[in-house]
Amino acid sequence: MDDRACEDEDNLFALISEREQELAHRCIVISTIIRNLSFVPGNDVELCRSRSLLNVLAHLLVFRHEHELVMCEHLDDQNEIEYMHCVSYLKKKSLIYKNIRNECEDRTERRPGDQWWWECVQTLRENTLVTLSNVCGALNLNNLDEQVIETYSLGLIHWIICKSHEAVDPLSTTSETNMLSAQRLCIEILTKLSINDINIDLICANLNRMHSFMDNFVHVICREYLSKRDEQTQREFSVVLLCALAKSDQFVSRVIAKYTPCFLSFIEDFEEVARRYQLLNPNHLHYHPNFIQSSHVSAANNPNLRVLNEYVSNINEDNLGTTIDMLRRCSNTLAYLSVYSENVPFILKYENRILDLVTSQFVDFKVAQILSEVLYNCSVKS
Predict the structure, then answer these.
(1) SS3 of residue 97 by DSSP
(2) How far is Cα 111 from Cα 364, in angstroms, rounded to an integer?
(3) What pLDDT does 296 receive?
(4) In the chain, which ranges are continuous DSSP H helix?
């Protein structure tokens, strides 16, 4: 099975009429104005109030981005069969996949000049992605029509798992030192959408029938972003997104559980940094006056202890390279995974690594506490 993106290879020097050029220019100017407005603080709320604009942005997300699926006569692999079901569903919805053919069939050729809009669509899509990344923190998908929600869900997931150069290459307007691509922008958009729980619930609900796509999506997030130590911003986006997904959907959590070592590596990397540079906080919990004075009071009735647990850490995060909150999110992801018994075998394979982190003095006390709960949940459900 071969999943190919339809690209403009034969029309690089196609002639464009004056009318077509003016139409493309007007579209680009309008989308650029909206893109620039989205950078102004406070405009995100105003732009998200326009359902017409959000509908247009959803349409532009996958507009003129087409794939062709070339398959063998007989599909024996179960994964390929599931992938075929996902593609058939998208083709039925007239999204992305426009043609499915056997490898013995000839490819449909386009006439020269049919794709005069190619460069215009590329620019419109780039402006759309940048606009969405700026406003999606204020976006509530629950206010949109079901079809628009589905387009956002399937479109964003597709750009993350798509292997075409349109998805993975840097955007045309970025500098040479900036590696920002459509794939990275979509991860950022999904991460910001996950701030609102209802958004992630709606996205998971629309992807319940797309199990094969979700497998690929989680694989890309974990292997190509969470595991890369030189891409700290993308690693943190991945942690936030995966934490929200693990909390929201049982099927997705089962897929995420296969990548448990990626989360442990994230915590271990910064445990090593804290050990190397001795980043212990002098306000360690065990020596804090509030803890000593009221240690006989239970945590539930001790407001001082609750404040300490939320805002104080035994690790100084100034030179850590990430935040304590991000490490706690990462450990919380494992806690959400450990709730389901089918995930326990994937976690228990790394029991010794988790124990090492729990007993390390260079791990945030809250992270150690959460990891202890993970081991307890696994022991109860195993």
Answers:
(1) strand
(2) 62
(3) 46
(4) 18-37, 43-48, 51-61, 78-92, 118-135, 146-161, 165-168, 182-193, 197-206, 211-221, 232-248, 250-257, 260-276, 289-293, 303-311, 324-338, 344-348, 351-359, 365-381
Position 312 confidence tier, pLDDT thresholds 50, 70, 90: confident
Q: Nearest CA to 116 among 164, 171, 169, 64?
A: 64
Q: Find out whether 204 and 150 touch, Cβ atoms under 8 Å.
A: no
Least confident of 61-65, 120-124, 176-180, 294-298: 294-298
Candidates 137, 164, 118; CA nearest to 39 is 137
Of residues 164, 149, 170, 179, the one with CA closest to residue 61: 149
Beta bridge partners of 280: 315
Interatomic CA distance for residues 346 and 357, integer angstroms: 17
Is the CB of residue 124 less than 8 Å from the CB of residue 57?
no
Asked whether the whole model's pTM tops 0.70, one would answer yes
Please give the C-alpha separations between residue 333 and each of 176, 184, 243, 245, 253, in angstroms, as whole numbers: 35, 21, 5, 9, 9
- Both tokens of 347, joined, read 């976690």
Distance, in Å, from the CA atom of 15 to the CA atom of 113, rounded to the nearest integer, reads 7
Integer Cα distance of 309 and 289 in angstroms: 14
